[in-house]
Amino acid sequence: MSRTIEFTKDMLILHLAGIVSAAALKRRVEIPYSKISRVSVEDYKVSMFQIRVGTSIGDIREGRFLIGNRWCFISYENHNDVVSLELDDHEFAKVIFQIENPLEIRDQIQEQLNQIAN
Question: Which domain of life is it from (predicted)?
Fold first, then answer.
């Protein structure tokens, strides 16, 4: 798949490959666990007319999108069942991405968050 997650000691890294990275104008997004305030799996649809730096064609959203007054990083071809990370004090207010097994990925992220909370 064009998107993979790497779990390090201190952060989650979203890796983008191939055409997805070209469309998003980015190859990776680094997110310290300490910046993640909420993780969920949801339907997250963004208007194709939203201000963006990246690609918005059909249901494809790749790149940075200005939502409200904050930048969000979005990477999906289908807005259903995407992983959504709400962030505090990060360059992005949210990072939203499509990935295989989104519920499993959500649980793995939550597990990392629980470990640093203890």
Answer: Bacteria
Calpha distance 92→100 (Å, rounded): 23
Q: What is the pTM of this model?
A: 0.94
CB atoms within 10 A of CB 9: 8
DSSP count for the chain of H helices, then E strands: 2, 9
Q: What percent of the chain has pLDDT over 70?
A: 99
Asked if pLDDT for residue 53 goes beyond 80, the answer is yes
Cβ contacts of 101 within 8 Å, gap of 6 or more? none
Residue 22 region by backbone torsions, left for phi larger than 0, else alpha for psi between -120 and 50, else beta = alpha
**How far apart are alpha carbons 68 and 111 in whole angstroms?**
30
Bin 112: left if φ > 0, else alpha if -120 < ψ < 50, else beta. alpha
Domain locations in the chain as residue ranges: 3-117
Residue type, 57: I
